[in-house]
Write a structure and sequence with these properties.
This protein is mostly helical. It is built from 7 helices and 5 strands, in the order αββαβαβαβααα.
Length: about 240
């Protein structure tokens, strides 16, 4: 079986197609519209494998090492994120990127996402810095709150910048980095060159928190006279 082994990430490995790249431009929690599930066929790209990491070669699964898998995924992640940067204000979630790099490289795993996606993004940080590109990992956000997360600190470290003072400072740095990505790779920017913005889901989360906080601060008023209730909770006017 070893003679049939083809190095993952070789020219034979599939690259992200335009339709998949277009789907990757939206923040989603699962598969974007038009995408199938992660597997390519029974017993090949699904979880019914005896291997932790495997590469699909001529329709068959061939075991690969952890290092080979990471190299293949990192190679597939770069064009995938460049495609995301091609859409102004576009971002992609960790989970969708994980599906994309496995599908594009033909290398799959049964390992949990948080056990390997950070290594892929770390490789991306260094590769972008080496190429002189903006930090494409700023385009990768969490599903629940639209934030880049603590791992983004490596972008600052590699660039020789001081760590972010707090969570919000980190997110604003990532917003500026995303704008730099759009300006480098997007061909349909606004006439003014675009502006930095927090990821849509993060903006939604902030709006929800502000609404909830305002509701907590709003004083209770009497429905009869619209005056604020005193501490007793009983209206003195009605």
């Amino acid at each position: 079986m070893a003679t049939a082994r083809r190095p993952p990430g070789s020219p034979a490995a599939r690259q992200p197609g335009p339709q998949r790249a277009e789907g990757a431009r939206v923040v989603v929690s699962g598969n974007p519209p038009g995408r199938g599930q992660m597997h390519d066929g029974p017993g090949v790209g699904n979880m019914d494998q005896p291997y932790s990491y495997w590469h699909v070669v001529d329709g068959s699964a061939v075991e690969v090492s952890h290092a080979e898998a990471l190299a293949a995924w990192t190679g597939a992640a770069y064009p995938a994120l460049v495609a995301v940067a091609g859409g102004y204000r576009s971002v992609i979630t960790y989970g969708v990127l994980a599906e994309e790099v496995q599908r594009a490289s033909g290398v799959y795993t049964r390992a949990l996402l948080h056990n390997w996606i950070g290594r892929v993004l770390s490789g991306m940080v260094h590769e972008a810095h080496h190429r002189g590109d903006p930090p494409l990992t700023a385009l990768v956000v969490r599903t629940d709150d639209g934030m880049v997360g603590e791992g983004y600190g490596e972008v600052l470290s590699v660039a020789g910048e001081a760590p972010a003072a707090d969570e919000l400072s980190r997110e604003h740095h990532a917003a500026e980095a995303r704008l730099a990505c759009y300006r480098r790779f997007c061909t349909s920017l606004p006439a003014d060159g675009g502006t930095a913005a927090l990821a849509p889901r993060h903006q939604e989360a902030i709006a929800r928190r502000r609404t909830a906080a305002a509701a907590e601060r709003a004083p209770a008023v009497c429905p009869g006279c619209s005056l604020q209730f005193p501490a007793t909770g009983i209206c003195d006017s009605c």
